[in-house]
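Progress against Task 2.4 (sequence-to-structure conversion) is shown through the following example record, which the project officer requested during the mid-term review.
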Amino acid sequence: MTDPADDHDRLRALEDAGFPLHSLPPEQRDVLRDLSAEELTLLLGLKERLDAAEPEVQAHSEIAGGALF
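Structure tokens generated for the chain above:
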């Protein structure tokens, strides 16, 4: 069984990274709460890379009127 403090820290790390946990159903929050340390690191790394690419994607959608290319 995991330490409840670890569960809180895991969810806090996700919230701090911008995951909208408040809008997720409890079942999905439970899945995120139960991530292993490796899974959490991977998910946070993916979120960071997606966020880094976001301005370019947003600029394209504004210029091209939402067209995907």
